[in-house]
Design goal:
This protein is an alpha/beta fold and 280 residues long. It has one domain (14-246): Metallo-dependent phosphatases (Purple Acid Phosphatase, chain A, domain 2). The protein has helices at residues 14-27, 44-55, 75-80, 126-137, 167-176, 243-246, and strands spanning 32-34, 61-63, 97-99, 102-106, 144-148, 181-188, 191-197, 200-208, 220-227, 230-237. Strand 5 (144-148), helix 5 (167-176) and strand 6 (181-188) form a beta-alpha-beta unit.
């Protein structure tokens, strides 16, 4: 008898995925927003496994494209057809979800290439922002709006290094439209903060990871409960660490890599692996 090889996303935490799948099945949320980096190296087998898992979820799902989801080894495909490997769930990619009085609107922050390195950093092009703003403006008057992206929209680090190109303009435009919050991934640790923009305050909510590429906190996902215009956020995790202990304080890190040294913890839990997980 031939054994069927187990397909995987790359470096996912299978215990965490099973836990989340059970929670979704039991609690039946109104929607699920997946903010990118489904795979490690965008291999076909990684996509197949990710699409199989997402396809089993019952609620409406929207999936943002992360920098790890762009073809990594096949540059021709990266430039000509970067979403090809999403074929199993293409209807969910950058999908707007319309709920009663509330919409989740996508904002693309990844790029096939940039005039800077690394290409993994965020870039909100004029076209991408225009599409998101047009979708928001087309909603019925009084609609509450949440925007889903991959990269946090913070444009510069505390050291002045450019992070998400076009982030300041995007935040100001979203704040001007009264967006409740922008959801993102990429960092691998949860955070929840309000930033001041030229058009007023904007809330940024970052999710943790369900992979083994943790930084300082256990695998987690964010639970959002919305009452009117108030969003209550709980960072739920496998080890029952309190939300307040998991959330990042201070500047948002520049990338989503695990810390390289034991002293580089970025959240109070200080769960820094002694050795980084393999990335191949």
């Amino acid at each position: 008898m031939r054994k069927r090889a187990r397909r995987n996303f790359g470096l996912e935490d299978r215990q965490a995925l099973s836990w989340v799948e059970r929670a979704i099945a039991i609690e039946r949320p109104d929607a699920v927003a997946i903010t990118g980096d489904l795979t490690m190296r965008a291999r076909h087998r990684e996509y197949s496994a990710a699409c199989d898992w997402i396809g089993r979820l019952a609620p409406p799902v929207t999936v943002e494209v992360g920098n790890h989801d762009m073809p990594y080894f096949n540059l021709w495909e990266r430039f000509t057809d970067p979403y090809r490997r999403y074929r199993g769930i293409e209807r969910l990619v950058e999908r707007e979800i319309d709920l009663p009085g509330l919409a989740i609107v996508p904002l693309k922050t990844t790029a096939r290439a940039q005039w800077r390195f690394p290409w993994s950093n965020g870039w909100i092009t004029a076209d991408a922002l225009a599409q998101t703003l047009a979708a928001i403006d087309a909603l019925p008057a009084g609609s509450r709006v949440i925007v889903a992206a991959h990269h946090p929209l913070v444009e510069r680090s505390a050291h002045g290094k450019l992070l998400t190109r076009g982030g300041n303009r995007a935040m100001a435009e979203l704040a001007a439209r009264g967006v409740l919050a922008v959801l993102s991934g990429h960092i691998h640790d949860p955070f929840d903060r309000v930033v001041e923009t030229a058009a007023g305050p904007l809330r940024l909510i970052g999710a943790g990871t369900l992979s083994r590429r943790i930084r300082s906190t256990p695998p987690s996902f964010n639970e959002l409960v919305i009452e009117g215009t108030t969003i209550h956020v709980t960072a739920r995790n496998l080890e029952q660490v309190p939300t307040e202990a998991m959330q990042l304080e201070g500047p948002i890190p520049e990338d989503a890599l695990p810390p390289r040294e034991p002293g580089e913890a970025v959240a109070p839990v200080h769960r820094v692996p002694e050795v980084d997980p393999p990335v191949s």
